[in-house]
Amino acid sequence: MAIRWRLPDSDVPEGGPHFTDVLGQVRAVDDESVVVDTRGGVATVRLDRIALARRVPPPPVRRPRRAPGGEDIGIDDLQVLMTAGMPPLDSARVGEWLLRSAEGYTGRANSALPVGDPGIPLLAAIEQVTAWYGERNQPALVQLPHPADANPQQSELGSFLAQHNWRFLTRTLVMTRPTSATAPSGPAHSPLPRMTASSPNDGAISPSLGESAVTRDNVAVSESPSDDWWSSASPRSLEHRDTLASVLELIPEAAYLTAYAGDQPVGHLRLAFTDGWSGVFDVHTDPASRRTGVARALLASATEVAAQRRIPLQYLQVAADNLAAVGLYESLGWRVHHAYHYATAAR
Question: How many domains does the chain divide into?
């Protein structure tokens, strides 16, 4: 129901307006007022102040946007699917919203995913989100998916959070590609330098021209994280190793890829398989081996694994300001499907 009603004279700002609008579901009506559940909370309007009231049909169901490569999947559906690749250790629901916690490791596993109807007014839903994370001594964090070219504060929820002084954090891109897609350019095999006799004992890689190179064939694949996979993890992953290990145990179908130069592990990634999609996570290259083709070899192998399993589609998530990674993914045929921001409650 949409209701236009006249403000009390004391509430009218200088120069007007004299009327305001309420949009929502009518909860109750009596001889004096009508109570409306709005997305911002409960509103009570006196009947003698109503100038106009009309029924508003429900919003049309949005058709899912067409993603690159011909697959049809909407933003919300892909966001829900991706949760299986980084599942929380603790979760709850506010209506259809999913609240996730994993001891603070990664925003993906420690944020509310507001997909669907919370079943209660927006203000009450956000209060429940904030309280749930407060009980776990974590900051309230909301993941806001949106079209890649959109401002998250233009959505109803984003606007509401902005008005309540929530801070909007970094932008993340969700990229997809068909497994069968051919990279626009680049060699079939990306060279990785191998260890030389002059390599220092600290594990740094010393690439030298003219030496035989290893390729993506030097990527090992296992069904569980090996010692070498862990040894090539990022410092942050190692700092939270126990938490990450617990998360990985919740993924029913996965693969773990480790790249080698000689017998030295120099990078890794992992894959999570869900409903015809292969999700790429934890792409990491040893700092001493960056710009030597490690990530390209790992990604090529990840596509081979998906093809062998007859998984037609792939997704990954990358910080929008990581231009080197975004450029690499685009060169391998990945395209932006949508984006998301995190928003956190003001303290």
Answer: 3
Q: Which ranges of the chain have pLDDT less than 70? A: 12, 14-16, 39-40, 56-71, 182-216
**Is the Cβ–Cβ distance between 194 and 221 less than 8 Å?**
no
Q: Which residues contact 47 (CB under 8 A, 6 or more apart)?
A: 31, 32, 33, 34
Q: Are residues 187 and 289 in the same domain?
A: yes
Whole-number Cα distances in Å, 304 to 106, 116, 254 = 27, 35, 14
CA 251/CA 253 separation, integer angstroms: 6
What are 280-317's pLDDT values in tens digits?
Answer: 999 999 998 888 889 999 999 999 999 999 999 999 99
Residue 37 lies in a domain: yes
pTM above 0.85, yes or no: no
Surface-to-core class of residue 299, CB atoms within 10 Å of its CB (0-12 exposed, 13-18 middle, 19+ buried)? buried
CATH of the domain at 240: 3.40.630.30
Q: Quote the domain boundaries for residue 111.
A: 72-171
